[in-house]
Amino acid sequence: MKKKSLMLLILLMVSLVSFGCSKSNTLSDKGDISTSNNSSQKSPQNIKSNRQNNNSEGNNSQVNNSDNNNNSQSNTQNNAQNNSQQNQTTNEGNSQKKNGQYVICIDPGHQAKGDMSQEPIGPGATQTKFKVSWGTQGVATKTPEYELTLSASKILKTYLEQMGFKVIMTRESNDVNITNAERATFANKNNADLVIRIHADGSEDSSVNGASLHIPAQNGQYTSKIYPKSNQCAEIMMSSMKGAGFKVNNIFQRSDLTGFNWSEVPAVLVEMGYMSNPEEDQKMAQKSYQEKMMKSIAEATQRYFSQN
Ligand SMILES: [Zn+2]
User: Signal peptide location in the record (predicted)?
Assistant: First the structure.
């Protein structure tokens, strides 16, 4: 009995140990599951809070994303700004450099004393015309045209030089004697790229007003070569002047002007307005008016060269 009891006890202990181990393993497995189950059961709040965390992370991430987006947007904007600034700088740099290669001849119309002796109207022409007149005069201000044209031309020169262009002037005082043919050949000899002639109009009809642009004629005997670029420049000038609020009557082709016929350089003659119109005469006498008009012409010149 004792032996049997001992044997039974041993068997019981062995089976208990063995069962315990397997149970422990099972518990351990279940424990893991139950932990997970417990966690899922116990922690809807945790889940919720996790979700909230997740959400808040999501929000954070959204916020971050949106910050990032904002940042990236603002970076993009900054980059765009920087790029555009760089481009602008580059463009300005280029245009400054480019402008510096161009020579613009400004011809302030007329002079204090006209020279009514004759000169050929074009190279090799038998037809002649007076060399240079003293121009017209303001009906209200009594300002002579040659004074107005020199004043406006000096303003134009300043604007163009500020843009980087090389500017030469046929005259910088009123007491000169330079014929229209000589003014044209002055631009030719100096390899000018454009001639801008500044004048003011006169009419027997005092109601007539507005600026006008004159260019070498397309079918002119001496002017057909320089017509296309002259016309292109005049179109841009008309648009720019109108944009600045000036009335521009039209672009007129001329084959009868000595100053165009002798020119090998594209040229535009700007009639600023009518000195025979009292109101326009008074406006043109104002420096601010001259500045506004010359600025629109300088800007047009810039645009013209950017296209050529
Ligand atoms: Zn004139």
Answer: 1-20
| Number of domains composing the chain | 2
Q: Is residue 22 part of a domain?
A: no
Residues 203-242: tens digit of each pLDDT:
999 999 999 999 999 999 999 999 999 999 999 999 999 9
In the chain, what's the furthest Cα-to-Cα distance? 162
Both tokens of residue 77?
Answer: 């904007």
Would you say residue 82 lies in a domain? yes
Q: Which domain holds residue 86?
A: 49-99
Residues lying with their CB under 5 A of ligand 1, a single-atom ion: 109, 135, 199
Q: Which residues of 230-256 are buried (b: 16+ CB within 10 A; e: fewer)?
A: bbbbbbbbbebbeeeebebbebebebe
CA of 66 to the centre of ligand 1 (A): 65
* pLDDT band of 97, cuts 50, 70, 90: low
**CATH, residue 301:** 3.40.630.40
| Segments of the chain assigned E as strands | 103-108, 115-120, 128-132, 166-169, 194-201, 211-216, 248-254, 267-274
Centre of ligand 1 from the C-alpha of residue 197, in Å: 9
